[in-house]
Amino acid sequence: MAQSSTAITAPAVPRNAIVTAIVLLVGGLAVIFDSTIMSIALKTLAVDLAVPVSTIQWVTTGYLLALGVAIPVVGWAQARLGGKRLWMIALTIFGIASIACSLAGDAPSLIAFRVVQGIGGGLMMPLMATLAIQQVPGGVALGRLMAMISLPAALGPILGPTIGGLILNYLDWRWIFWVNVPFCLVGLALAWRLIPSDPPRGKPILDWVGVLLVSPALVGMLYGLSNVSHDGGFTRLDVWAPVVGGAMLLVAFLITQLRRPEAALVDVSLLRRRSVASSTAVLFLSGASLYGAMLLLPLFFQVVRGADALTAALLLIPQGVGALLSRSLAGKLTDAVGARVVAIGGFVVMGLGTIPFAMAGADTGQWWLMAVLLVRGFGMGAVMIPVMSVGFVGLERDEVPHASIITRLAQQLGGAFGTAVLAVILEGAVNGADGVAAIAQGFGTAFWWAVGFTVVAIGVCFALPAKPVTSPVD
Q1: Rounded to 5 degrees, what are φ and ψ at 43?
Q2: pLDDT tens digit string along 199-214?
Q3: DSSP letter, residue 261
Q4: Backbone dihedral region of 139: left (phi > 0), alpha (psi from -120 to 50 degrees) or beta?
Q5: Which of 135, 163, 273, 393 has its CB surrounded by the most CB atoms within 10 Å?
Q6: Is the pTM of this model over 0.85?
Q7: Are 221 and 243 in contact (CB under 8 A)?
Q8: What is the DSSP string of 363-374?
Q9: Chain segment 63-77, per-residue pLDDT in tens
């Protein structure tokens, strides 16, 4: 009888973990809002700075590449500086770079400052999960804690486009960067007062071999995949050459890390653990399904439905609302019944919420599509929490930063891969299409591929641990 009760009852989240998560949320909102606001600002920036869209696109591409450079060094930097100090340094970099972006006088300076911003954001993204999870012994109650940490990701798609649209309609574009500053200042003050201090763990030597392998590897792969949407797709030299070169460097990086575990930049031996490996694989596929569809949805509303960029962004709000609504339930269920069931259920709901778009056209009811987006968002929120949390189950404190780096990079690469594949499929499907109906059918083909990513992810989810963690793991 006691075992049955244990199986459905999850332990409480420690108070110190809740306080740390709330403090991290404030700073994390700056990064999420910045990314979601920028998604609708590129056209305005191109006009005001008198440059083509292909140039101003580097405002987002440079930021993305900077993330790839910064994320792998977070584990070493935390050991060298301490997590609290590193978080405050990263938040300061992000805040100062935001101010610099607002003062940029031309496109090259704006792109350069966005790269600096990306370095700060790249340090913050894995560190946000690490600092909160290190407050939880043995991975207990990780589901509900991850639900708290994921709040910015749920709020960003709801508030970011709205705030960005209002700013771009009534104020100068420079204010889209000033929005970050209050979050950075308040986040710094709260972090200084409330995040527990963790002193540096000696003076670990930076694995320069690892840095010189993994940084160009990630930059090459992300850059190559970002070029797939141009004419020629995967056959372009600036696509396959950096992707292949990056993949080769990544293999060399993994080999060096396994051969020199005592000096490894990232402890990739954690992938031998079922929880970390399965979480990483599912995060890659969820990134492909999630971010790939996020490319299609606003384009569908603009190209097929005739909406402008701001209207398209506002029409996606129900998806963010759905993700927000599912967070708490998904966190509780993950702690009570385990990650596998919740993740599979979330992917099923997300797939069901994508299928109607594969069959939609210019005349499909707007309210029906918004209701479908609400359902899809609910599935998205239910997927991310169990999959992200299970990768940290049973890890020692010093292993958490490395697991955070691995899972974050998997999600980034999966998102880039999914976006690239669906961009090529969409281009091929709509190329030469005559009329709105034919274009809608082309979008339907791309959406069916997004559903396919989801189906594959469901299969991989069966590798996730089935049982919840109800007591500390030694």
Answers
A1: -65, -45
A2: 887 778 888 998 999 9
A3: G
A4: left
A5: 393
A6: no
A7: yes
A8: TS-HHHHHHHHH
A9: 888 988 899 999 999
Rounded distance between C-alpha atoms, residue 405 and residue 129, angstroms? 10
What letter does residue 399 receive in the DSSP assignment?
G
pLDDT(464) > 80:
yes
Q: What is the pLDDT of residues 176-196, one digit of tens each?
A: 899 899 999 999 999 999 988
Q: CA angle, 416 as apex, 415 and 419 as ends, to 5°?
A: 80
Strand, helix or coil for residue 53? helix
User: What is the residue whose two structure tokens read 């910015």?
Assistant: 152
Structure-token pair, residue 3: 């075992």
Q: How many C-beta neighbours within 10 Å does residue 103 have? A: 11
- Helices 15-38 and 58-70: crossing angle in degrees, nearest 10, is 150
Which residues lie closer than 8 Å to 84 by C-beta, 6 or more apart?
131, 191, 195, 196, 197, 198
Residue for token pair 């709801």 = 158
Distances (CA, A) of 415 to 7, 72, 244, 446: 34, 17, 18, 15
pLDDT digits (tens, 9 = 90+) for 369-419: 999 999 998 998 888 888 888 888 778 888 888 888 998 888 888 888 888
Separation CA 472–CA 293 (nearest Å): 38
Q: Pull the structure tokens for residue 75.
A: 């584990």
What residue type is assigned to position 116 of the chain?
Answer: V
Residue 238: count other Cβ atoms within 10 Å of its Cβ: 14
**Using CA atoms in the order 343, 349, 350, 356, what is the torsion angle rounded to 10 degrees?**
160
Q: At what angle do helices 208-226 and 237-259 cross, to 10 degrees?
A: 150
Backbone φ, ψ for residue 334 (5° rounding) = -60, -45
**What is the token pair recorded at 69?**
């450079």
Both tokens of residue 467?
Answer: 């049982």
pLDDT digits (tens, 9 = 90+) for 296-310: 888 888 888 888 777
Nearest to 175 by CA among 15, 48, 351: 48
